């Protein structure tokens, strides 16, 4: 009988993946740094295999972060975000976005834009595109086949 991954293991794994992508490291390179195969890194990132304390310490060191990074925004055992009434510093949509190659690429490019007016125009453009996409989804136009 196959066991479902624990939500904490999934969260920690997704944070490993996000950080690995943020520093531009492949699964192969991280595996080499840890003496593991890229397949094992994949299992960690998907939460299929639990990461032990000493291994998490090695991963944190290889990725240049403190261990706490991997637990930021983690759900508590009841599935709620930890921290009482405090707002989650990394909402799930943010973590999901930065875990994609498109999200990471967009974030990296955006932070390189120094002119605040240009950054504002980029945000306005993306918001307009998202709004237009929402309208199209609500009112689909007959497409010629």
TrEMBL record:
It comes from the Bacteria. Gene3D superfamilies: lambda repressor-like DNA-binding domains. GO terms for molecular function: DNA binding. It comes from Saliniramus fredricksonii. This is Putative transcriptional regulator. Residues 16-70 form the HTH cro/C1-type domain. SUPFAM superfamilies: lambda repressor-like DNA-binding domains. Pfam families: HTH_3.
